[in-house]
Amino acid sequence: xxxxxxxxxxxxxxxxxxxxxxxxxxxxxxxxxxxxxxxxxxxxxxxxxxxxxxxxxxxxxxxxxxxxxxxxxxxxxxxxxxxxxxxxxxxxxxxxxxxxxxxxxxxxxxxxxxxxxxxxxxxxxxxxxxxxxxxxxxxxxxxxxxxxxxxxxxxxxxxxxxxxxxxxxxxxxxxxxxxxxxxxxxxxxxxxxxxxxxxxxx
Length: 202
Hints:
The protein has one domain: Rossmann fold. It has eight helices and five strands. Helix 2 crosses helix 8 (177-199). The mean pLDDT is 95. The N and C termini lie far apart (61 Å). By secondary structure, the protein is an alpha/beta fold. The protein has a five-stranded parallel beta sheet with strand order 2-1-3-4-5, sandwiched between helices.
């Protein structure tokens, strides 16, 4: 039963749409060179890696795990252009591997172990963390750097620990987790579009 003291649901939805949409528009308006420069560097490293048989590895937790899978799916499948699939793997999808490594070595190692097993010299690692402090993403980056992979982060707030660890940090200009997540998938789509445009035959 509806609470008589609460405003009607439609009124609440309208208010949320106005406030949330305004917050997102304001955050998107703050995007600029601080985000585009590392995003361009990420695209360049992925393109160079693909030329030598490398791949893009992507990981994150929770909503960032879903975003990792989303980005990999757009690249392996299709984003906008008809073209061959691109080499990208989300490290968040194999539940047997995740639970085995988590059980035997601890949750902090679930991505690092996969980087150790699957990562090659021409690969690029992209970690997604709204706080920039996810321990398993930190460990993945440490492992990747030790193996010679280029590393990048889609981060939030002040970039956290990962900001200083990755080769390029793309920091969403917001302190609000939902806005950071929305900007991350927007940036992921920009990355996919940039990679497709760069590889499209002339």
